[in-house]
Amino acid sequence: xxxxxxxLGQSVERSQRRAANYLNQKTATLSRRQTIAGLVLFxxxxxxSSAFTIWHSLRSSAGSIRIQNMKVPAHTIIIPNNDNNxxxxxxxxxxxxxxxxxxxxxxxxxxxxxxxxDSIARYRPGLLDSLAFIxxxxxxxxxxxxxxxxx
Length: 151
Hints:
single chain; mainly alpha; 3 domains; 0% strand; elongated
């Protein structure tokens, strides 16, 4: 695949070089004064058109953007937004998560188990990170509960 992109890049570069050579040939007969006048004219025309577009978009109310409510399809599952991101875990749920983590760790002790562990990690790439996140959230939950009791 690398070769395809390299050839494509070389092709684009050749086309750009041909266009640059063509334009250089066309402008080679122009004097320095004509080149500067052309550059100033180009900047005034395109700068002016850009300024007009910006000015018109700010002054015109006909083309203003209106914010409308979105219609949510009936079959959509809406997950409530919890701003405080509370993750309430029971001791039993944490026990099951830690047991599963111990099982995953024990898989790495044998060659066959390592193959199973690698396939789990490959086909469920976020699983191990999720387990660590859940354990951290539980520890934070315990600490928060302890802090609230102290107050």
